[in-house]
Amino acid sequence: MTANEPVLRVEGVVKWYGEQPVLDGIDLDVARHEVVVLIGASGSGKSTLLKTVNLLERVDDGQIFLAGDDITDPRVNADRVRARIGVVFQHYNLFPHMSVLDNVTLAGRHVLGWSRPRAEARGRELLERIGLGDRAAEYPDRLSGGQQQRVAIARALATEPELLLLDEITSALDPQLVGEVLDLVGELKAAGSTILMATHEMSFARRVADRVVFLQNGRLVEQGTPEQIFDAPQHEETRRFLARLG
């Protein structure tokens, strides 16, 4: 990967569900250390785009490159690609029968082949970083929703991913827990993480994004700095979407 090459490049990506195009020719780059936030109504294609990047959905046309590697090539090892990408979904998806530490260390041990001591050292470091170092031996159901989502973020970071995908990570949380999770994302931005995330939290998008991307009906309608998108949107569709939120 050259210094100027984006961590993620999406070129002309199309995805159909039956007769309906869910992604309709998406072009998008995410630079190293950049935080790009996807906004748009439910059904606009945000989650599907994230799933295609993580190879949970195969594209019907177009290509996706991770640090210059074509990850949409059908010959790629999907598990190896996913080990390079950290993902956090709306629902925490923690394994209930495993301790917090075992959840965080699973990918390092089983996908990357790390020894248990190495994986656990990394896991404990991350749990300390998110303020849950004393909960390593607990099971997920003993934690609040906000704590579980922070563990999910730690798990996503455990393999030292090149790219972090966050899909509406606060939508399943009680309102009082949203802030603690979003504060953690702000800390990841400050630490230089490369993040592509979908969110309905517009004030957070304004605060943390380097670039905001508005999707509608599977198309990229407009992108720009938070100031450009929220204060002076250029497209009528963007203005209508933001007006409905106001």
UniProtKB/TrEMBL annotation:
This is Amino acid ABC transporter ATP-binding protein. GO terms for molecular function: ABC-type amino acid transporter activity; ATP binding; ATP hydrolysis activity. It comes from the Bacteria. Gene3D superfamilies: P-loop containing nucleotide triphosphate hydrolases (3.40.50.300). Pfam families: ABC_tran (PF00005). Its main location: membrane. GO terms for cellular component: plasma membrane. The keyword Membrane applies. PROSITE patterns: ABC_TRANSPORTER_1, ABC_TRANSPORTER_2. The keyword Nucleotide-binding applies. Keywords: Amino-acid transport, ATP-binding, Cell membrane, Membrane, Nucleotide-binding, Transport. It is found in: Cell membrane. InterPro entries: AAA+_ATPase, ABC_ATPase_HisP-typ, ABC_transporter-like_ATP-bd, ABC_transporter-like_CS, MetN_ABC_transporter-like, P-loop_NTPase. Residues 8-242 form the ABC transporter domain. It is a peripheral membrane protein. The lineage of its organism: Bacteria, Bacillati, Actinomycetota, Actinomycetes, Micrococcales. Belongs to the ABC transporter superfamily.
